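Researcher: Re-running this chain for the archive, since the previous output was lost when a drive failed. Same request as before.
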Amino acid sequence: MNHQEYDTHTRYYHLHHFIILPLAFFLFLWTVKLALEDPANDWLYILVGLLFILISFVSRIYANKNQDRIIRLEMRLRYFQLTNVPFTEKENMLEIHQIVALRFASDDELLGLIDKAILQNLSPKEIKKSIREWQGDFMRV
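Model: Regenerated structure tokens:
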């Protein structure tokens, strides 16, 4: 894939979304079944099932938070390259999800879109839909 736009930018990490998560949910359902059959150890079965679900979600949360930090640094660099002014003041007026959405804007429209996002308190979805010249992110998982 060498082109992205709003309708095609959602990414799936196949191992996580289509193998690990379904297996974790299946394991949880299986442990609930075992707990119903063996009330003496019901808490243990359910605890094991919950543990697998939590592990799969926590690992995904860590990956997303790390990517958000990298995108914040990328946006600081891009903003400074375009304006010769630190991004700090504008960054403090934006939520991380807005900054992540702004990452998809081309350099030509980034500055105007940052101001618009701040003034109108645009949601990430609104920001992404406002982008005319999409800059794809092919490395985010």
